[in-house]
Amino acid sequence: MENMVLHRANTRGNANHGWLNSNHTFSFANYHNPERMNFGVLRVLNDDHVEAGMGFGTHPHNNMEIISIPLEGDLEHKDSMGNLGVIKQGDVQVMSAGTGVQHSEYNRNKDKAVKFLQIWLFPKKKGVTPRYDQMSFPKTDRHNKLQQVLSPTPDDEGIWIHQDAWFHLGDFDRGFATSYDIKKSGNGAYAFVLKGSIKINGQELNSRDGLGIWNTNTLKIESTTDAELLLMDVPMEIA
């Protein structure tokens, strides 16, 4: 029997540090809600707004797959593996923390904020060698379709990570309808609306609402306005 969990945008945890305004779908830092710890292997979904010239100083991670998706502006990344780069709207960045890595993230723009999603997944294997990757995905390739940006293998579309997860981005016109089949038995799907209103399996969602669905094989997706969507197909069992 299909199961759903709905997270409305206004029920998220919030941390406003002035330079950073972050909304947390799941428990993070000082926001702790025992009923919102994760959705399967999806551990963190932070909706971050970083003011001009500000950012996160060097800090460590381990045994986590970290995905950053810029929505507006440019974000500079620097890490202990020697990577230095800038990600911008249309890019997806992945960092497999594995045995341990340190990194920093800064908004190098002096005149505008950066908005990006920071997403953490538990890996399917611990102690892997840390790695970094980023890739650019043309927005035109997601017009009225789901564009795959993340997968479990280098042979598939998008960037690969150490988890049986698939991420898709969609940019839909009002009235567009499609379906999505869960990629792997035992996976569920977490939908996060970036803009507009979308109906998924009959549930109406608005901007920044999240919906988790499991024990189902197919999602029915309909945009009730012009809308943008992030769809995350993830294992429900943590290894």
Fold topology:
Blueprint (H helix, E strand, L loop, with lengths): L2 E5 L5 E4 L3 E5 L17 E9 L4 E7 L3 E8 L1 E6 L4 E5 L2 E6 L4 E6 L7 E8 L9 E6 L9 E6 L7 E2 L5 E7 L4 E5 L5 E9 L2 E3 L2 E3 L4 E5 L3 E6 L3 E9 L4
Parallel strand pairs: 13-14
Antiparallel strand pairs: 1-20, 2-3, 3-4, 4-11, 5-10, 6-9, 6-11, 7-8, 7-10, 9-12, 13-15, 15-22, 16-21, 17-20, 17-22, 18-19, 18-21
Describe the structure.
The protein has 239 residues and is mainly β. The protein folds into two domains: 13-136, Jelly Rolls (Sandwich), CATH 2.60.120.10; 139-235, Jelly Rolls (Sandwich). The chain has strands spanning 3-7, 13-16, 20-24, 42-50, 55-61, 65-72, 74-79, 84-88, 91-96, 101-106, 114-121, 131-136, 146-151, 159-160, 166-172, 177-181, 187-195, 198-200, 203-205, 210-214, 218-223, 227-235. A seven-stranded mixed β-sheet has the order 1-20-17-22-15-13-14, with no helix packed on it. The model has no long low-confidence stretch (mean pLDDT 95).
CATH architecture of the largest domain: Sandwich
Q: Would you give the CATH topology of the largest domain?
A: Jelly Rolls
Low-confidence segments, ≥5 residues, pLDDT <50?
none
User: Count of DSSP helices?
Assistant: 0
Coarse morphology: globular
How many separate structural domains? 2
Number of strands: 22
Tell me, what is the CATH class of the largest domain?
Answer: Mainly Beta
SSE string, helices as H and strands as E: EEEEEEEEEEEEEEEEEEEEEE
Mean pLDDT: 95
Distance between the termini: 23 Å
Helix fraction bin = under 10%
